[in-house]
Design goal:
By secondary structure, this protein is an alpha+beta fold. It has 5 helices and 14 strands. The strands form 2 sheets. The chain has a 6-stranded antiparallel β-barrel with strand order 6-8-7-10-12-11. A 4-stranded mixed beta sheet has the order 1-2-13-3. Strand 7 and strand 8 form a beta hairpin. The longest helix is centred in the C-terminal third of the chain and has 17 residues. The protein is globular and about 55 Å long.
């Protein structure tokens, strides 16, 4: 049982993955995207009646600028950004099975799960996803050149840093700083997962929200997802 905000529950999910436990969160924070409403009464009954939402983490495997190997999981998003470096980040991205690379010139790039798509991803201008959609968001951060894509959950994305020593970027998994990297591979790890327990009312609210997200999605985006299973959009600001 996780008592706190989203950050507390993200930490609890890592513990749940480590020890093979289910996680039931109650909100004592601000947003409470992952949590149920706080109420200590009838907790045993609520736990028995709660429904499971299986969450599969993003996994990042990266090469540090000193040649070290970095591995971590994330439930919301994985992102790289220039941070304390005054130079713009320049990245070459590729998606396994797709011959078209994408280029990023700006602050950085992030990849977000459906649950995480409503967090940093939205403030970066990315697409919000329904929590049950088998998709993830690929969004460039404050850039003059980048992409704003929706990818299938099976996608494997590789980011390579151009001039990593000069234009260094920092890697983050959720709220964890992992170091400066020269390249990283990001993908969903469907071999492991954590059951997140939600009250029926919580699921109903999220299903209504997901229906609204899909209904408000631009037609070109929904058409691309229906026909191709992904939406690719590269852009360049003058």
């Amino acid at each position: 049982i996780s008592l706190g905000g989203d950050g507390t529950t993200l930490a609890a999910l890592r513990l749940g993955l480590k020890y093979g436990k289910k996680v039931y969160g109650m909100n004592l924070g601000h947003l409470g995207a992952y949590q149920n409403e706080y109420n200590s009464e009838g907790l045993s009954e609520r736990l028995e009646e709660a429904q499971e939402i299986m969450l599969y983490p993003l996994k990042v495997q990266a090469l540090g600028i000193q040649g070290d190997i970095i591995q971590q999981i994330a439930w919301n998003e994985v992102y790289v950004r220039s941070g304390d470096n005054p130079q713009q980040a320049r990245l070459i991205g590729s998606i396994e099975g797709d011959k078209r690379p994408f280029f990023v010139c700006g602050d950085g790039h992030l990849l977000a799960t459906p649950m995480g798509s409503a967090a940093y991803n939205v403030s970066a201008g990315g697409h919000k996803l329904g929590f049950r959609e088998n998709l993830w968001a690929s969004t460039s951060i404050a850039v003059c050149r980048g992409v704003n894509d929706i990818l299938p959950a099976s996608a494997h994305v590789r980011l390579e840093v151009v001039q990593a020593a000069k234009r260094s970027v920092s890697l983050f998994a959720d709220n964890l700083y992992l170091g400066k990297v020269s390249s990283c591979d990001i993908f969903h790890d469907f071999s492991v997962g954590v059951p997140l327990l939600w009250d029926k009312k919580k699921i109903e609210r999220f299903e209504q929200s997901a229906a609204q997200i899909i209904s408000k999605r631009p037609r070109r985006v929904q058409t691309a997802l229906t026909l191709k299973g992904c939406y690719r959009h590269a852009y360049q600001r003058s």
